[in-house]
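Input/output pair, single chain:
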Amino acid sequence: MSALTGTARLTRLALRRDRAQLPIWILSTTLLAAITLAAVSDQYPTEADRISVLRTAVQTPALLMLRAAPTGASTGEMAMFSMLAFLAVLAGFMSTLAVVRHTRQNEETGRTEMIGATVVGRHASLAAALIVTVVANAVLAVLVALVLVGAGEPVAGSVAVGLAVAAAGLAFASVAAVAAQFSGTSRGANGISAAVIGAAYLVRGLGDAFGEILPNGYSMTSGWASWLSPIGWTMRVRPFAGERWWVLALPLALAVALVGLALALTVRRDVGTGLLADRPGPARAAWQLLSPVGLAWRLQRGTLIGWAVAITVTGVGVGSIGSAVEDGLGANTGAVRTINNLGGGGAGALIDAFFAAMMAIVGALVAGYLVQALLRLRAEESGGRAEVVLATATGRLRWLGGHLLVAVVGAAVLLGLAGVSMGLAYGLGVGDVGGELAELTGAAYVQLPSALILAGFVVAVFGLLPRLAVGLAWFGFTLCLLLGQFGALLNLPAAVRDLSPFSHVPAVPSVALTVTPLVVLSAVAAVLGAAGLVLFRRRDLTP
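Output:
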C-alpha cells in the first residue's frame, strides 16, 4: 500500500460532500465578475469617464489599498482595478475552507479515524482535498474567462484573469494544507489561513498605494511590496495590459513548495493532533466559566479582540482622510457620484455622504463578525463539545442564548469603537472633536439593526439546517453585501437591492435619521433569532 492509496475514492467522497458549497462559491465569484464588468461598462461608457475617475484614484492611497493600482483606462483594465483583488480573495477563501474541511476538520470530527480503518494511505486525505481544490479553481478559471470573453473583452486578457485568480486560489490552498498540520483544530487552521489571506491583501495594498504614477497621470506601477503577496502576483499578471504570463509561475511554485512541506509534516505528527501542542488548562475552572455566558465569552473573546483592533484601525484611517475628501474629490463628478451612491444617495454634503458610505462598510464588517462569532455554535456542536455542556444542567436555550448575547454585545462594542475612532480622528482634523464624536458614533449605531438581521439568520439556519449552516451563513452574508452595499453601483433594480437589510439603513449623517426602518429590521432580527432558538430546541444534535 502506497501513501496515496485510496485517493481516488476520497476525492469522490469530498466532491460529493462539496456538491453544494463549492458551486455556490464558484458561481458567486463568477457572478461578481460579470456584474462588475457590466457596471463598469454602464457607468463609465467612454474612455474620458474612466480616465477622470482613475486620475483621482491614483491620488488616493486609501482607495488603492482597497482596490488595486490601475494599469490603464480600457473597460477591462477598469474592471480589473475594481474587482481583481476581490476575486483573488474569494478564490483564496474558497480554497482554504475546502482544504481545511477535508483534512483538519475530518480529523477533528473522527472521520479520518474511521477512514483510516480501511485501506487508505497516509497522504490520501490531503491529496484528495488538494485535487478537489484544483478542480474547483480550474472550473472557476474557465467560467470567469468565458464570462469576460462573452462580454466582448479580449480573449488573452480574459484567460489571464481566470488563470490569475485560480493561481491565487491554489497558493492559498497550499497555505491551508500547511496550517492544517500545525493547528489541532479546524478553527485554528481556518484562522491561520484567513490571517495569511488578510496579510497578503494588506501587503498588496501597500504595494499599490505606494506605487509609481506613470506620466499619463491615470495608471500606475505597483511598488515592490506587491511582489511579496500572492494577491499582488495576481495584479502583476496585468490582464488586458500586456499580459505577463510568467508571473503565474510564482503562485504555482509557492503551492508546490508548501504542499511538499505539508506532506512532509503529515508524517511527523499523530492523527488528530497538530504540531502546535494545545496548552493544558488549569485544574479548576475560573468562576467566569461556570455559566453559559462566561463560557461563550471565553470562546469568542479572541475573535472579538481581533475584530476590535481591525475596526479601530479602520476607523482611524477613514477619519484621518476625511478632510482630504472634499478638497481632493469635490471637483470630480464621477467620484462624487460614486460616493453619493455608496452613501445612500442623500442630498447632504460630500463629506457626509463619504462618512455614510464608510459607516455602511463598517456595518457590513460588523455583520461579518457576527456571522463568524455565531458559527462557533456549529463548531462546538460538530466537535462534540456542545454535547458535553448540554449533558449538564445547562439547557439548550441558555447555551445558545449565551453565545448570542456575547456576539450581539460584541457587535455593539465594535460599532462604538468605529464611531469613536472615526469621530476622534476627523474631529481633531477639523477642530470639532465633541461634535464629530457624537455624530459619527450615532451614525455607527444606526448600522446595528441590519447587522442583527445576519445574526438572526445564522441562528435560524443553525437551528434548521446545522450541516449547511456554515455555507448558508456566508452565502447569505455575501449576497446581502453584494445587493445592499454595491447594488446601487451595479445598477441593480431597487426590488433586488431591497432584499438586503443593508439597503434599508438610513444613510446617516448624509440623510436625517428615520426610526421606522430600524424598528422593522430589529423586529425581523428578533423573529429570526427566536425561530432559531425554537428550532434548535426541537432537533437532535448533529455531528
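The chain has a mean pLDDT of 85. The CA atoms of residues 101 and 409 lie 30 Å apart.
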